[in-house]
């Protein structure tokens, strides 16, 4: 599976393969020609991925092969024990969470979980939580506060599930309660956008002390397609909307909403998962170290000040 903007690279790679087969079949030395094309591929790849448009970054953020929350947990944390259920209705597999050890320190880890295949996506509801998912997340956050454990959240969702049954069970109330209660938790909270951070469904795990984003992740109140449909009455103008919304990691870092960017390998996180896991682990270490310097009684005030600084106000 490839993106449209990768076609020039794919065409060159196909030529290289053809030359290799031809050289082998006819016992001809074409190493110079092959080396030339391989260097051209590297140049083209750097050129393309160094100048991605916001919409192209949206495509990468949504890519099904990007590492998921459970992959980050497995790579970064030790002794993860998953907890289930919200103690009201049931368990939502679109949200995973539990306790783990991070460099020997007990932490609570929570995140959106999408699938890596159609079957898994159906099981995980494409990473779009029902209200019981958010209530499960809040239950674990309250437990973390009780036992004085830092909270690490991984954000990766198109948004909260908009279906009739979700609304009947209190989707809006569940998200709103998460926002209110997260704002007042007395333990450090770090949230990391690893893919697509969509609307209130993402924000329900995003009220935090430190917000980090992967370079090709996005965080927005609405999808580019949705914005284009509303603003331009034409969903096909999604690329223009993506540019206008300022939804990329770099955009949010420049706006001082994100506290840091996590470097990705050329082409996206799926090209070198161990590299991304190491970068993510390093920034969590840094964030926890900085938050440990803030007194517990000052943490909520500092979080409040962080959000009050967001946005430009003109009278």
UniProtKB/TrEMBL annotation:
Domain CoA carboxyltransferase C-terminal: 29-290
Gene (UniProt): accA
A Gene Ontology BP annotation from the UniProt entry: fatty acid biosynthetic process
Originating organism: Phocicoccus pinnipedialis
Function recorded in the entry: Component of the acetyl coenzyme A carboxylase (ACC) complex. First, biotin carboxylase catalyzes the carboxylation of biotin on its carrier protein (BCCP) and then the CO(2) group is transferred by the carboxyltransferase to acetyl-CoA to form malonyl-CoA.
Catalysed reaction, written as an equation: N(6)-carboxybiotinyl-L-lysyl-[protein] + acetyl-CoA = N(6)-biotinyl-L-lysyl-[protein] + malonyl-CoA
Single GO MF descriptor: acetyl-CoA carboxylase activity
InterPro entries to which the protein is assigned, alphabetical: Acetyl_CoA_COase_a_su, ClpP/crotonase-like_dom_sf, COA_CT_C
Coiled-coil stretches noted in the UniProt entry, renumbered to this chain: none
Protein name, UniProt field: Acetyl-coenzyme A carboxylase carboxyl transferase subunit alpha
């Amino acid at each position: 599976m490839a993106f449209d903007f990768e076609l020039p690279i794919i065409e060159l790679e196909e030529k290289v393969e053809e030359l290799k087969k031809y050289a082998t079949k006819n016992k001809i030395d074409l190493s110079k020609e092959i080396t030339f094309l391989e260097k051209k591929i590297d140049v083209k790849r750097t050129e393309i991925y160094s100048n991605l448009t916001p919409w192209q970054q949206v495509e990468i953020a949504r890519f099904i092969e990007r590492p998921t929350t459970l992959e980050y947990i497995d790579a970064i944390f030790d002794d993860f024990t998953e907890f289930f259920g919200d103690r009201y209705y049931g368990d939502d597999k679109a949200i995973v969470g539990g306790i783990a050890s991070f460099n020997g320190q007990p932490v609570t880890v929570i995140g959106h979980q999408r699938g890596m295949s159609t079957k898994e996506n159906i099981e995980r509801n494409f990473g779009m939580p029902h209200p019981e998912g958010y209530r499960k997340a809040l239950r674990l956050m309250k437990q973390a506060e009780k036992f004085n454990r830092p909270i690490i959240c991984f954000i990766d969702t198109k948004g909260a599930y908009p279906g009739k049954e979700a609304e009947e069970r209190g989707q809006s109330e569940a998200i709103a309660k998460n926002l209110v209660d997260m704002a007042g938790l007395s333990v450090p909270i770090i949230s990391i956008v690893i893919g697509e951070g969509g609307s209130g469904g993402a924000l329900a795990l995003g009220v935090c002390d430190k917000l980090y984003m992967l370079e090709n992740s996005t965080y927005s109140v609405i999808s580019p397609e949705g914005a284009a449909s509303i603003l331009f009455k034409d969903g096909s103008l999604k690329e223009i909307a993506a540019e206008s919304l300022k939804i990329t990691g770099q955009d949010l870092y420049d706006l001082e909403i994100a506290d840091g960017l996590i470097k990705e390998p050329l082409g996206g996180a799926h090209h070198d998962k161990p590299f991304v896991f190491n970068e993510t682990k390093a920034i969590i270490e840094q964030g926890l170290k900085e938050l440990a310097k803030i007194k517990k009684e000052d943490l909520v005030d500092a979080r409040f000040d962080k959000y009050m600084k967001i946005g430009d106000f003109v009278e």
